[in-house]
Each structure stands twice: as structure tokens, then as C-alpha cells.
């Protein structure tokens, strides 16, 4: 496939792997966090980890939109479908995330909730137009990538005067999550999570630009390399990070120049600023309450805010006590460190959110990489 | 003077299925006569009895398979639920190494379904049965109230004749065997997805729905009896699911070579856009053959010599693996598990 195969070329990958190995300083270990679930997925799916030298460790970050969604928010969406009789439109990934009472959106659907999978916020608008007699709520989740389309949908609904459309806004912000990790005791005080640098988000950075990461490079002395979601992007970014570490630099570098600029997409930023404002606090699964880490709908668009429209109150719900998703999302634990991984918690019956989305660290490792944990491994013939 | 019984013919242009068609009265009998019996016409059906009396070739054992067909949309690029209901069951019988002989068909119709659409589906089904040389010898029709069906559901059962001594099955794959696939994977699923209401995208991909017993016959004739250990059609859940089933049944592992798996560029592109993996997308006209290594080349050549197997490829090898993993060397050079599908394949968020 043109423009995709080029970024998945095995020969180039081997060349990059050799280049990375050649640049490593003997005896030194390198730990890089890939913030995004998209990178986690690419690393697992293409077997990138296997091509990297053992001294390079990839730490999975919290950038999986479904993984960081707390139970309480999914409960709200389920409540809207089951108790309020609304049509809830949601991205497919969200359907399986476990919520309270053994429910998920998919199970709520089986109990009669009218829950529809959509590909975009615009599809949710279409539903609202087609069912003018029903309340239609778009369950808006995701980082800065999915925020502009939600903003556009709200603006469009306002322009059309759609009276039955609203948005349960759970959009979260990447830079706040990175700050939270860098400020965490594990990274700052104990050093239990060694972090030598970040692979910066791909699609998020298209929207927000590379500028917002400069703070992390300057303030925390951590190199950031923004990289695309293709496996060669990831390997090139690792090479660039290794070079920064070796040279004692901490800068924001952009591997993904084919899509990311320093300023980002200004038009998208404008429409987001027009419709949304910062939330004072928002609960993330795994990270807990993170101040100014999420968006809410501005008062001018309050009638499209499902929280206001339905008078929703937020009730935090603790995760299963043995679920290690929190620690995994902060990079403190690996999926295999969790007692539940692969026995109680599997993609068929996920206990924690990291096992749900294919971008989640646990699901990615379970689906693609778990043969490495087993002593007897079949070798290629 | 005796007037001959007169019944106004069914209005197949504007008519719709109603509860009378399932009530066991004249309307039902008329629908059977003017649509089903006419389309599927054969001696067993013409006899009009409760069951069909069938001949079985001497020295053969009976193979029986059943399949319920529910699909949305009912008509898709390259086929419809009618021909699919024939191909699916014929293929299940063929994958046992048997020659498919007869089919039964059970229709569940939803009240309000346009008779024109039903006629089109039944005629497509009859044509598929004729082309396959496997007649529908007995059938049934029921009608459910509006909202309790999805237009049409079709359940078909097939019987076939298995020559004495032939053993082909999912539990017979052995370490060292070659894994072959008869063509590009993911075509059917992508063709159907492209017409889903919520998805609609433009693609030239058409479903690969086809009866595979001719291809199977050609394959089995090209190699000694016993050389083909396993045959299976990778339908729902795609190639990945089928291979995992075989690994589990045979207590072996499989190692695939991603670069060798044939995928049409359009299918790959559609999957890329939707966040899906062609390995998990359904096929309706492909088979997986697990073949003794010394006969793999002959088997591959036989597949490629058939119109339905032109793009056949050797995609991997059976391995000794107590964990029964299906693994794959990626085009990128790494290795990963090709796991069971977890629930419905769902698109990713970002």
C-alpha cells in the first residue's frame, strides 16, 4: 500500500536497529516512555521491541484514551442510556471498558440501552437529526486528536438549533498527563521509574504542535522526540533519543515532520478554544485527580453539555483492588507485574481498562507479545 | 360446469411478506409453489413430502454440516445472503474432504419484507445451488412479526459423501506441515462493511463468496491420499481465528510469514482506515490447507491451477509448541502472536 508500506520496511528496520545498537554506550541502560497508545500498539504489533537492543527499554505511557477513562464516567454514559433512555453514541473502543456492577456499554446495550457505535462526532450529529424525538448524547472521549471534531459537532448543533443533541465531555489533555508523570514520586523522588526521554504523540501533536513539549525538555531535562505511529517512525525516534541522551541534550525534536509543525493546527485550536474551557479537576484512571487536565464545555454552549442538561453528578468509583492499571499507566509496573494479567484479566473479560483497547499496554502485550513470557518459544524454522 | 381453482398470482413487484405466509394456509403454500419450488426445482422437492429420500454412493460415509446465515446488509458487492447460504454450507461439507450432495434450507422471514427482495435472494440462492451442483431438496418457511427478524434469516444444512478411508480434520495438523491459503484474505468482510449503514465507503472490493468443493477436488486429486491433513474455510473471525482453532485442535503451534499472506491492496487500505486487521476479516471463498511438507509444492500448484485458487500461497509452517501459539514473523522483521479475536473487532479511537 503506497505511503504506508514505506514506513514498515523490514530492511530499513534492520538498518535502524543496527544504527541504534552501534550508538549505545556500553553498560548504559536507556528507558524511554512512549506516551501514546498508538505507539504502544505499533511496538507490539510489528515486534519493534524485539528489534531493539536489550539495553533499550520502552515504558508504556498513559496515552490510551480508553484506558484513562475512569469507571465513574462510563457509569454516567450507561446511566444516560439505561435510566434516561437516551441514545448514547460512542467510539467502538469504549464499548468494552468495564464499569460498575459488572456492566460495560456493550452489556448495557444487551440490557436494552440504546447504545450506538459511531466513527465520528459527525455521525452522532446525524443520529440526533434522524431521531429528533429522542435525546442523543455523544460520549466524547480522547486526547487532543478527537477534541476538534467534538467542538465542530457542538458548533454545528448550535448553528442548526438541534435541541436533542448533547455531549458528555471527557476530553483530556496530553501535556497535563506528562507533567503528572514527571511530578510523580516514582519518577522524581525514588527513581523507581527511570525515564530518559519521551516519544511524543503523533496525532495529538498534529493538533497542538511541538511547542507544548518544550517545557518538559527545559524544565525537567527530558528529551522529547515526536514520532509518527508507523514502526519505522518509532525506531527512528528511539535512535534520536539515544543520541540526545548520549550527548547530554534535552530538546524537543520532531521525527514526524511530515505532519507536525511547531504551532500545530491553529484552526483546530481556535475551534477547541471557542467551545471548550479548562476543567479545574478531572479524574483519570490510574493517575487519580489531575488538576487542569481536561476540558469542559463553555457556558455559551451549556445546552449541549450532557452533564448540565441531565444534571449529572460525578461519583468516583475505585478500581478493583488488585488491578494494576494505575501503576501500569504511570509506567511503574509492566503488564506482567499485575497479578490479574492473563488469568483473571484477559481481553475477553477485562478487569482493568488497559486490557480493553488494543492501544492499552496489557491488551497489546496479551495479544501480540505474550509468547515472550513463556520459557518454551517456538523459533522460526 | 366446474371452474378450475383460480388463485391470483403473487405480486412479486409490490407485495410484502405478511403473517399469512407463515400461517400454514393457502398463502404459504402459494409462496412455496410460486417461489421456492419453482426456483429450486428438483425431483425430491417436487415430490412435496415432509422429507427427501436420498441416495448415497456405496462405500461412502455421510458428512453433515449446518450453518445459520444472518447478515447485514442482505445484498452486498459480489453476492447476497442467498448465494452465501449455499456457499457457506457447501464449503463446510467440502472442508471435511467430502463431496457435497444435498442441501436443506430453512427461511425465517420478517413480516413486511418486500417479496421482490425475497425473490431476488431465493433466485440467487437457486442459481448458486445449480452452479454448485448441490440441489436444495427440502425446506421450510416461517414468518415472524415485524421487528423480530432482520428481513431474512436462512439456515442451511448440507450432506456430502466421504470416501472410505479419507481422514481430513482440524486435529490432524503435524509439526513440519505447510500452511497454505487459497487466495487473498479479507475480501468478503470488507465488501460487506463497505455497505454497512453507519460506515458506507467506496471500494472496488467484492465478496469472494464461492463454492469451494471444485477447488478441494482438484487439490485432493493432485496429492496422494492422506497428504492433506486439514482443510478449513476461514469465515467469521478470518484467517487468524481459523489458524488458532487448528492450533488448539491439533495441539501444535503455527508460525506465519506476514509477507507471504496475500491481501488485496484495497482491503489493506480499508482495514488501515478502519483500524481493523485483514487477518481477522471474514472470507467466504477461501480455504486453508495444512499439507504434509513433501507434498506442499504439488498442493500449491493444484490450488493455483484452479480459477478460485490463483492467488494461493504458502504462508507458514506448523510447529511443535505446547502453548499452541499462532505466531507471525512480521514484514517489519519482528515477531508477534496472532491471537484469538476478543469479541467483535472494534475500531480504535485515535
Describe this structure in words.
The complex is a heterodimer of chains A (381) and B (350). Chain A is an alpha/beta fold. Chain A has 3 domains: 5-64 and 175-254, Rossmann fold, CATH 3.40.50; 71-173 and 280-309, 3-Layer(aba) Sandwich (Rossmann fold); 325-366, no CATH class. Chain A has helices spanning 10-23, 37-45, 48-51, 71-82, 105-110, 121-130, 147-160, 174-183, 185-190, 203-208, 214-220, 231-246, 266-275, 306-309, 325-329, 361-369, and strands at 30-36, 56-63, 87-91, 115-118, 136-142, 165-171, 197-200, 224-226, 252-254, 276-284, 288-297. In chain A, the strands form 3 sheets. Chain A has a 5-stranded parallel sheet, with helices on both faces. With 350 residues, chain B is an alpha+beta fold. Chain B folds into 2 domains: 19-163, PurM-like, N-terminal domain (60s Ribosomal Protein L30, Chain: A, 2-Layer Sandwich), CATH 3.30.1330; 178-337, PurM-like C-terminal domain (Phosphoribosyl-aminoimidazole Synthetase, Chain A, domain 2, Alpha-Beta Complex). Chain B has 9 helices and 13 strands. In chain B, strands 8-10-7-11-9-12-13 form a 7-stranded mixed sheet. A 4-stranded mixed sheet of chain B has the order 1-6-4-5. A two-stranded antiparallel sheet of chain B has the order 2-3. In chain B, helix 4 links the parallel strand 4 (99-110) and strand 5 (136-144). The longest helix of chain B has 18 residues, at 115-132. Chains A and B meet through helix 1, helix 2, helix 3, strand 4 and helix 16 of A and helix 8 and strand 13 of B.
